[in-house]
Description:
single chain; alpha+beta; seven-stranded antiparallel beta sheet; 3 helices
Amino acid sequence: MVSTAKRTLEMQLLIGPHDAVPVAGRFSYRSDRPYEVEVDFITRGRSVATWLFARDLLLGGLRDETGEGDVRVWPFREPGGQRRIHIELSTDDSVCELSVRATELTAWLEQTAAVVPPGREDEYLDMDTHLARLLAGKH
């Protein structure tokens, strides 16, 4: 049986030094895919992008800057402001930076840890199934 942790978090798409647009991030985690997180970005009631990346990036990004390449995550606090986590997503064409409240992201990550404890992902990974999907061209 597959266990999941899902939550929609209010995020900010940072479009300038002092400008941001609200975006909902629907975060999903599944026990049968224990290393990855799926985030579906929703604005004006419709999905505009979906990204898959390692849960470890979010866990590490709670404390320090982590990631390289397509996804980077780091903690941030404006003077007198609440603690936030920044997530930078890059493609060949563009870079987008999002921000989410650290308390909200931490609460969701705690849900994922109840599904699969960090460091024990290999106990939940069915390598035969994933290899068969890969060879069949399904991700």
